[in-house]
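Field reference: sequence -> structure
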Amino acid sequence: MKKFSTYIITAILTLSSITANAANIPRETLPLNATEEQKQIVENLIGDILDEVQADKLGYGLASGYANTRIRKAVISHQTNGNGYGILSPIAQNAIRYYRDLLLRPDYYAQTEEKLRVLLIDLLVEVQNGKDYNTAYDEARIIIYKAADASFNPDTDMVGDFCYWNIPPVDSAEFTIARKLLNEAKNTYLQK
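Structure field:
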């Protein structure tokens, strides 16, 4: 029993030291079905990896491999509170991809955020006044597609299986930034 207690205390101290200075996973990068608990588990496991990505010490490939290895080991050893690899790995991959892309294209992110802030202004105000986040995100996607191609019509172009949708090409960063702006608007509403 003493050996087990020592192991638990060591594990807790290790995890707390990892997160002390570790990067946070931005809410806008989470898969839509991810929970705050899952986000925290991944932050505890790979926070130091995210720090190295942000410092340009790790590229996407190595960071992704290291993160997947840690997550797989944690799931196998039952250290993820019942959360599986299938949800924890995408959380890590999205965060790594986001931080790496932000590092490589900071000007693009800044310009796109300003562009979307103007494009989505009415929707952002509605979310600040209580509009449902998920409904607003669906509407934001349509607005972004229409901005890319004025002839886009969701009633005819987004019919049937997703693989048959006729959607204009849009950088996925635009959707991540839109989610960031919508989250900020939602937080403004919740603070009222």
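Note: The CA atoms of residues 82 and 89 lie 14 Å apart.
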